[in-house]
């Protein structure tokens, strides 16, 4: 489960980054349309009907209406645009005049010049991007683990006394509340007491703590940088 949780954070972060790249290209594409496409007037000549697939058994399939727009380019040649974004009720009515953006190099490529028709796909992509990145970042924070091997190699080992094992009821990952171990160590040479907190554990460690003690490795001359050895718990 721990390995699965760690894998999930990378999946969501990679997905979020991939979506972010796609979002950047989408923004650039729409911005390019706005800045380089020609503007002209068009009229909605019909509404193309399509049946939406509703997966809910309690609701019937419904019709979605896509506006069909007739417009002319700067050569006075007529073109038909079937808008890719449909709705119910229809966003436009037959006979309505609309502004059209079309590619001067390929006049058949066109969009109705409204915020929603131009940016709808980008907005949906932005929502998925933000959700994926937030989930990935939150998982990284909640499942952050320290490099125990590095601390064992470069650090100093001390035996700390466990004074609390706490289930984090305000945090949940995959429906589970993590546990944290709180321990303290008294530096009798410098007459200081240091508190240590474990990484998140997704099993109750209470039965695996012997004599209320855990081994902690801290970097030389800096006890605030440490890693708690919980390998006997997580294995």
From TrEMBL:
It holds the Pfam family DUF3592. This is DUF3592 domain-containing protein. The chain crosses the membrane at residues 7-28, 118-143. Residues 40-115 form the DUF3592 domain. Keywords: Membrane, Transmembrane, Transmembrane helix. The keyword Transmembrane applies.
